Sequence to fold (295 residues):
Amino acid sequence: MLLTSYSKTPRYLPKPDTGCDIVVLGHNRSDMTAQCLYQLFNLNHGIRTTITFVDNASTDKTGKMASWYETNTKRWVPWAKHKGKPFRAIRNKENLSFSEANNNAARLGRNEWICFLNNDTILPDHGWLGMLVGTAQYKDWAATGPSSNAVLGIQQDCWNTEWPLTHEAKFLSGFCLVVRRDVFELIGGFDQHFFYGDEDLDLSIRIRKAGWRIGVNRFVHVQHINQATLSTITESPGQHYAETRQQLIGKWGEDTLRDLFIWPELTMPKAEWRRQGVLEDGFFSFFPGTPKDGC
Fold:
């Protein structure tokens, strides 16, 4: 594993010849999808990629935009702007769940890693994906994710004041989630009983129960508009998430949900907990350190 530096901050690079399938799901909001795909086709991701875009029964211009990208990646089209860029578009006749649509798209890929990316994200141009994959390879994690301005739990910017650059997590958000393909397939992918909400927490639970670790690379920051797509599906996102949270509790129980946010009573030395990215107060999420102003 190669280790180099970026602005005097260590970063992990992926192993040679490693590939990652990027899966982007969109339902309407063609403006956001256009921005997302533009980034994916023009930024340096730091790793070999194949892009799969899933049009989840959009009724706006999303389908035409996806067709444009398909045409402009064909090698035989003389005027293609992205000639030879690995890209595929899937068009669903009905709005499938986040879980089902992403599972279907993931099955089409062949790379060792999968990145599930929301279309309401703004990506950094410094090899972000290569660093996430490289960190997971170096740390022997099954999944990893970045920090963000709008995300549930310890990936949130305002709780990053005490955390090391890379640390373990109990759950990762699905807005930008990188996972090993073999592990994802082994545990059966996202649970398709969940419809836009908490399928990422459920996936994290099942990965950890299967004996794998997951974690965060805080150096990689992905901006998240948050709930932009969900707002086109429901008029009450808060109520919707409350219902999916009850669904998660019904599957795993209250104790498992509490365990996602708080570590058990600490019995190891403080230095050991800090090495694993857990602070001495015992809280793994929401209160790991001193929040920034306005959090």
User: Anything to note?
Assistant: The chain has a mean pLDDT of 83. DSSP finds nine helices and twelve strands in the chain. The first helix runs from residue 30 to 42. The longest strand covers residues 48-56.
